Amino acid sequence: MASLTRLTRLRWSRLALGTALVLVVAATAGGCTSSPPATTSSSAGPPAPALTTAQAREIFDAYIDANVKAARTNDSALALSVVTGVQHSILAAMVNHPESFCSTPSSSGEGCFYGKPDFDQYAYGTPAIYLPEPAGYPRFFVAGVAQTVKGTAPADGTATQVAGAAVPVDGDVLMVFEQASATAPWQLASTSRLASGMALPRLATDGNGYVPQVPLTATTLFALPAVTGPLQAAVVDDGPASAAAKAVATGPLTTGMYQGVSEHGLTAPPGDLYQWYLEGAPYPTFALRTASGGALVLYTMYLNSTVSRLGAISKTSSAQPGGPIEVPANFLPLLPKTKSAPRKSLETQQLLSFAAIDPPAGAAKVTVIAIGGGPNYATAS
């Protein structure tokens, strides 16, 4: 039997009806996807104290200073103390398996590795600070800033691969800082790089300069902000043929990811199955009002990929298992050291952060504009 390049994971349910109920569109959209995230933009209760731009800039600068010191003293504990969420998970993987990550991004893709992580590898421009209107905890703010690799010439459009998507090596990023509670420190939760051709939309502001937050269940938008991730997942999983493609714009982080994962993801030997699926992760989702009446949605997803023997899926199949399964270089250090390649299965996971524009009802489709994160788990047999 020939190798299958795609097999929808059977435990997933098709949410065509559920997606149609939450989309404010005439056409029904749906697909094979995970459930909407349970987390909300802020908890109920009294609003947290308002943050000033000066305070946010101090938090941003303190993060940069901590990384400079961590790099100088090789203090991984210090570097980990100023991050949370996606950033903490990815940095912890780098600290524990440093050879699996690039110290500097490379145009050659996701397979490069240089040794111990460089906590101070980036230079930053002057950040634009976007402060949400005060709400409950966790509270957050966004810094939009130019990020470049230290000690290198301008990339001039050079791209690297993040989960199958091509993004610029240098460019603008959205950095989300979070404070989990009144007594918790401010930490960097995610850094998402804007894809080529994408730009941060102008955000709305109130009379005090704060950006209104959008409820994740708001019905005045093209889609509920809570299902932005699942809609993207349906297209990444099934490509342009997905029913959700009616609601999600084509681009490097939707149809481009589908193509990248299908063509450059794991390799399945003949007789084995290759599966992948994008699903929600248990981290807060935030939504900020755009000047056009839409929302900038900031959320987190897992990209899971598996190569497995056909017999693991179909007990009645007579197909013979394929040969050794090739493990991508950036996942090798996440596996126990062994003399032989896996023969039964290989499972990998990447933890990814995204930013997407959810337009007002009746406007254009949902557009995913930024991505961050990287490998955080692998197992094989």
**Rg to the nearest angstrom?**
21 Å
- The N- to C-terminal Cα distance equals 22 Å
Strand segment count: 12
Rounded average pLDDT: 79
Helix content: 10-25%
The ordered string of helix (H) and strand (E) elements is HHHHEEEEEEEHHEEEEE
Give the overall shape. globular
- The total count of helices amounts to 6
Q: How many domains is the backbone divided into?
A: 1
Give the strand content: 25-35%
Task: Explain briefly what this protein structure is.
With 381 residues, the protein is of the alpha+beta class. Helices cover 18% and strands 26% of the residues.
Features:
single chain, 381 residues, alpha+beta, ten-stranded antiparallel sheet, disordered N terminus
Structural description of this entry:
This protein is of the alpha+beta class and 381 residues long. The protein has one domain. The protein is 18% helix and 26% strand. The protein has 6 helices and 12 strands. The strands form 2 sheets. Strands 1, 2, 3, 6, 7, 8, 9, 10, 11 and 12 form a 10-stranded antiparallel beta sheet that branches. Strands 4-5 form a two-stranded antiparallel sheet. Strand 9 (286-289) and strand 10 form a beta hairpin. Helix 5 packs across helix 6 (255-264). It is globular, with a radius of gyration of 21 Å. Residues 1-39, 100-115 and 312-317 have low confidence and may be disordered.
SSE topology:
Layout: H1 16-22, H2 53-73, H3 76-81, H4 85-96, E1 122-124, E2 128-130, E3 139-149, E4 159-162, E5 165-168, E6 171-179, E7 186-194, H5 228-238, H6 255-264, E8 272-280, E9 286-289, E10 295-309, E11 345-358, E12 367-380
Antiparallel strand pairs: 1-3, 2-3, 3-6, 4-5, 6-7, 7-12, 8-10, 9-10, 10-11, 11-12
